[in-house]
Amino acid sequence: MHATDRSRELFGRALDVLVEGGSSPSRGPANYGDYPLFMTGASGSRIRDEDGNEYIDWMMAYGCLPLGHADPRVAEAVANAASSGAHLATATEVEVEVAERIRDLVPGVEKVRFANTGTESMMAVLRLVRGYTGRPKIVKFEGHYHGWHDEVLANCHPKPPGALGHRRSPITIPESSGLVRGALDDTIVVPWNDLDAVDRALRSNPGRVAAVVTEGIMANMGVIPPESGYLPALRRLTREHDVLLVLDETVTGFRIGPGGCQERYGVGADLVSFGKGLGAGLPVAAFGGRAGIMEALAWGGVLHYGTQNGSRIGLHAALANLRALSDDGSAAVRGAWDTGEALAAGLQEALDDAGVPGVVQGVGPMLQVMFTEAGRISDYRDFCGHVDGERYRRFALALFGRGVYTTPSAALHWMASAAHAPEDVERTVEAAREVLEDGAFAA
Q: Are 287 and 271 contacting, i.e. CB atoms less than 8 angstroms apart?
C-alpha cells in the first residue's frame, strides 16, 4: 500500500510557517490536492519521499536535470568547488570556461553574461533590447512564460476561451495583482504559430518594437512545437521589420540539443536566454548573443548587476554538466531523445488501447499527455479550449500510487533525462495503462 503519512504531517507543519506550505505555488495544494509529497533525495532516474517510497521521476526538477539526479560528474565538481569557497564575487577562470563552452555550443552567441535564474536573465534581456534599440515595445506570444516579472506576466496560464478576445486582437490578461501600473502597456500579445499576427503587430507599431520574444518550443502550455518552418520564417520577418529576435531557451536550452532550438530549427536569434538545464540543479542562468548588442551592457550603459551572478559553485556544476552533455557526440542528449520518444509512443498507445481521447505531444525528451478530443494542440487557444486539465491532474496523482512521479499540471510537461532507462519507460507505461483502464478514472 502506498502510504504518505509523513508527507501529510510535514505539510501540516509547513502551513504554519510557509505560504501554501511551500516556496512556489506550483508545488502546493493547487496542483497536488490535499498535500504535496515531501522528498528526501534522489539518484539517477529515481526520487524518494519521506515515507520511503521510491518513484520514477519524470519531472526532473522542472527540467533542471538533463543528466538525472546526483550525476557523479556534477556532484564531484560541486564538492570540489565547495571545499575551496562557496562564492568569491570576483573574476574566475571557470566563468570564462563556461562562457567559452556556451559560445562554442550555441549558434550565434558571441558574448555571454551570467545571472541566477531564467526570470533574472529575461529581465536583463528585455532591458537590453530596449536600451540597445531605443524602442519601448516588445511582442510576446500567448501561452509563453518568460518569468514572473511584470513586463511579460500576461497570458501565461490557461484561461476560459471566452476571456481571450478575438484572435486578431487578443486581450492582454495580467497574471497577478501588484504589477507596476502600466507595466504591460508596451507588451503586445499575439497568438503563436501565426506569422500574419506578428506581421500585423509590427506593421501597426512601426519603429516602436524593440524585439519579438519567443520560446523555441511552447513549454509552459504542455508541449506545443513550432509549425514546420515557423521559427526561420519568424527570423526573416523580424529582419524585414528591423526588429530583434529573442529566443527564450530557459526550458529547452542544452536539453533539446547542445545548441538548443537554434541548432534544431535553424533559426539565428539576436539574443538567447538560458536557465534550468544549464546549472544541473544549481541556480545558474545566462544570456548571450551578438557582440554588438551585448556590449551595450558595458560599464552599466544598460545596467545589469548581481552579487551572485556567475556563482562559483554553480558554474563548476554548469561546466561539468555541459561537458557531459556534449561528450561522445552528445550521446547523453541522444539517449534522452530516444527515451522521450519511446515514452511518448508508449503513453499514446496506452491511451488508444483504453479508448481514452487524448494525444501525447512532445519534442524529444519533452512531452505531455493531453486529454482532449480535438487531436493536435497547436497553440494557447487550442489548449485553453480543448485540454481537460482536471482529468490530467487525476491521472498524474493516480500515477504517484504506482511509483511514477510527474507534474500534476497539464500546463507543464514530462522530462526524460540521460539517466532514464528502458525499464523506466516500460514500468511507466504499465502504470499508465492501469490508471487509464481503472473504472474510477474513466468515470
A: yes
**From 35, 132, 145, 380, active-site residue:** 145
- In angstroms, the CA 211 to CA 202 distance is 10
Helical ranges in 191-229 per DSSP H:
195-204
Cβ atoms of 343 and 414 within 8 Å: the answer is yes
Tell me the CATH number for domain 5-70+330-442: 3.90.1150.10
Which residue of the set 49, 57, 150, 248 is catalytic?
A: 248
Asked whether 68 and 45 are in contact (CB, 8 A), the reply is yes
What's the pLDDT at 32? 83
- Residue 392 designated active-site: no
User: In whole angstroms, what is the distance from residue 180 CA to residue 347 CA?
Assistant: 43
End-to-end CA distance of the chain: 23
CA–CA separation, 337 and 407 (whole Å): 19
Question: What is the model's pLDDT at position 344?
Answer: 98
Query: Domain residues of the chain, as ranges?
Result: 5-70+330-442, 72-324
Considering the candidates 137, 150, 276, 424, report the single residue annotated as catalytic. Answer: 276
Q: Does domain 72-324 match CATH 3.50.30.60?
A: no
* Beta-bridge mates of residue 404: 56
Residue 219 to residue 224: CA distance in whole angstroms: 7
- What residues in the chain have per-residue pLDDT under 70? 440, 442-443
Predicted pLDDT of residue 329: 92
CA distance 236 to 233: 5
Is 276 labeled as catalytic in the residue annotation?
yes
**C-alpha cell, 249:** 531557451
Rounded to 5°, angle at Cα 260 from 143 and 198: 40
